[in-house]
Amino acid sequence: MTLDVVSLRAEFPLLARTLAGQRLVHLDCASTAPRSRRVLESIRRYHDEYTANVHRGVHPFAAEASAAYEAVRHVVATHVGASPAEVVFVRGTTEAINLVAAGLMLREGDEVVVTHAEHHSNSLPWRARATLRAVPSNDDGSPRWDRLGAQFGPRTRVCAVHHASNVLGGIAPLREIVALAHAHGVPVLVDGAQGAGHLAVDLEALDCDFYAFSGHKLGAPAGSGVLVARNGWLDRLEPTQWGGGMVATVRDDAIELRDGPHRFEPGTPNVEGVLGLAAALGLLREVGMDAVQAHGRELAAALLDGCRTLPGVRVLGDAASARIPLVSLVLPERGLDAETVARTIADASGILVSAGRHCAHGLHDRCGAAATLRASAWLVNDLDDVARFVAALRPLIA
Ligand SMILES: Cc1ncc(COP(=O)(O)O)c(C=O)c1O
User: Fold this and answer.
1) Catalytic: 159?
2) pTM of the model
3) Domain boundary pick from 286, 308, 323
4) Is 34 inside any structural domain?
5) Three-state helix/strand/coil letters over 61-75
6) For residue 91, how far is its CA from the centre of ligand 1 (angstroms)?
7) Residue 252: CB atoms within 10 Å
8) What pLDDT score does 107 carry?
9) 373: which DSSP letter?
10) 255 in helix, strand or coil?
11) Structural domain total, the chain
12) Residue nearest to atom 9 of ligand 1 (CA)
């Protein structure tokens, strides 16, 4: 393998646990990734050494906390190829997308171009305010990207697509999507929840307008997340949450908002979450996103190859296209259901996976699947993990 997974795994205390008397195999990283020692340490240091609110006090701890918090904006900006002034801290992808959907002040009759493979967090915020125009799907669930252009019309306000699908694993051809949408004068929001932890993100080159991701899916604390708003969009979005910290001055007759990301961060932010996010990104950068990507490709190929040997099992998505190391399996109807299988391989073999519809109900309906069993790997997994997963599954579906 490209990475020294055994050494990497030692950085994650959770993975030292045993389950069913065996080394834990964590193949549920798409739900939430384990946290590394350095993430936990960054939170502990804040609590032990300089706990204070940010942007509110003048004492040394307040200054230290504010400086540390703002420094993370630079870390994130460097990681994704944006400017710190374009980085808004939010609770996660869901909040980021809601912030944009609400801030665009969509009106009845406006349209949003999506795919059937979007997570509910990238469909429901739009559906609540506009009409969805979805790119048609292939039988395996993957979007017919060749049909994207036909979805744009005079009322299209946004194109909102995943970077990588949390069910299909497929990586969207973002450069082509952005070029096509921009040719129609439509801004693009990328749901990077499943992309940012696996793939190098260069927003300068990609030129999308919004990129959203969650810290917890790349090893940072839950409740930390980022909306990057580029191309001057932060000046055009209406704030939809109000409170302390977002205003420069307030008089009886006028409010002057702060510039840039602060305008969208009212109230006390998740300071320790943001500090943990920097630590998690630090680990990814140390490993190197090229190496993380190459490792992901190896694991994806192994998962596909292994699952192909399981009789009657259907893997959703386009097996021939690039994917993150994630497979969702439709199990044979004659056997156990996905939830029972997930529970059984945890209890009997110490393997964690997901079962269900993974917040993508329409996609499961389109694929004729009541539920799927999803295995999702990350940089803490190796080929042995994949082999143990496939071996544990085999007797249960026979
Ligand atoms: C593709 C995708 N988008 C959005 C989300 C929502 O992320 P969060 O719950 O962290 O806001 C998820 C979470 O699973 C996801 O996989």
Assistant:
1) no
2) 0.98
3) 286
4) no
5) HHHHHHHHHHHHHHH
6) 11
7) 4
8) 94
9) E
10) strand
11) 2
12) 94
Domain containing 222 — which CATH number?
Answer: 3.40.640.10
The CATH number of the domain holding residue 11 is 3.90.1150.10
296: phi then psi, degrees, rounded to nearest 5: -60, -40
Do 86 and 175 fall into the same domain? yes
Q: Of 183, 192, 234, 235, nearest to 215 (Cα)?
A: 192
Pocket-testing residue among 99, 114, 118, 119, ligand 1, by greatest number of atoms within 8 A of Cβ: 119
Q: What is the mean pLDDT of the chain?
A: 97
Say whether both 85 and 10 belong to one domain.
Answer: no
Integer Cα distance of 85 and 125 in angstroms:
25
Same-domain pairing of 292 and 229: no
Decide if pLDDT at 391 tops 90: yes
Residue 35 lies in a domain: no
Q: How far apart are CA 126 and CA 111, in angstroms?
A: 9
Does residue 197 contact residue 287 with C-beta atoms inside 8 Å? no
Task: Look at residue 398 and tell me whether its pLDDT is greater than 80.
Answer: no
Domain boundary among 222, 253, 286: 286
Domain that holds residue 176: 40-286
Name residue, tokens 């979450």.
Answer: 273
Task: List 323's β-bridge partners, or say none.
Answer: 170
Amino acid at 188: V
